[in-house]
Amino acid sequence: MSQVGFIGLGNMGAPMLGNLTGSGVRTLALDLDRERMAMVAGETGAARARSAADFAEVEAIVTMLPTSEAVSSALFDWDDGIVGHLRPGAVVIDMSSADPTQTVRLGERLRARGLNMVDAPVSGAVAKATAGTLAVMMGADNEAAAEKAVPIVETMSATIFRTGALGTGHAMKALNNFVAGAATTAACEALIAGERFGLAPETMVEILNASTGQSFVTSNVLNEHVVRRNFASGFGLALYAKDVRIARSLTRAIHHPAPVCEAVSDTFDAALAELGNVDHTRAYEYWAEQRS
């Protein structure tokens, strides 16, 4: 592949770009934070995009941005519009955590311009983004586009799950994060209750991890970031709340009653309204105070 564009150089995007560039792929990086773009490009060896016209030679673009709106804006609104410079048949690989219904609409807009889209959101947080071992959920309507995307995505991942049509990857990511969010809220609620009854939080986590209450949250988050009060998981509360909100929107769009999803989303939104975009593990402090 002659060149791959990469838009979005945040906590996840920067190491993902590093793995893509480190695999030998020639990359063109863009972030609206010019200082960050210069720093990440220098660290990874990627070229820096100075105008939308710079994307004329790329065969694929990876987007790793916070929302569906940000993805659309980056493609259509930056400079004079990146999509207007892409060659016919170019593939947009959206690895963001986005709204699946908006992904379907964006795919239609791109298809009208002779472009293809694949949604390929990721799971594994910053550690796996750095190691290049992310799990990827890939949806696509066009098999040729998916085939073009796979070797690019493989440089950043350990596993690629083909989920079905365009938008199903983003749907699966939102539902996954709802399940993880439910585990987070339940685990924190249990810790708060247990501590107030006299249980040591370290003992609680040890028992949870040896029992049926074990989850990714109990094994990888509670001790390091909640019990020890480090609160530095690298995943912001605003993004977590957004992902669960997407899952709630999805269940509403298909008229599927989902009371647990509604409750988890409300719980995250309340913490976000009070704390702002802190590390998501700090929600524990708010929940503990709220339940006092």
TrEMBL record:
Annotated 6-phosphogluconate dehydrogenase NADP-binding domain residues: 3-164
Top-level taxon: Bacteria
Keywords, alphabetical: NAD, Oxidoreductase
Pfam families xrefs: NAD_binding_11, NAD_binding_2
Gene3D superfamilies: N-(1-d-carboxylethyl)-l-norvaline Dehydrogenase, domain 2, NAD(P)-binding Rossmann-like Domain
GO molecular function, one term: oxidoreductase activity, acting on the CH-OH group of donors, NAD or NADP as acceptor
Domain 3-hydroxyisobutyrate dehydrogenase-like NAD-binding, residue spans: 167-286
Active-site residue numbers: 173
Recorded family membership: Belongs to the HIBADH-related family.
PANTHER family the UniProt entry points to: 3-HYDROXYISOBUTYRATE DEHYDROGENASE, MITOCHONDRIAL, 3-HYDROXYISOBUTYRATE DEHYDROGENASE-RELATED
Name of the featured protein: NAD(P)-dependent oxidoreductase
Record organism: Halostreptopolyspora alba
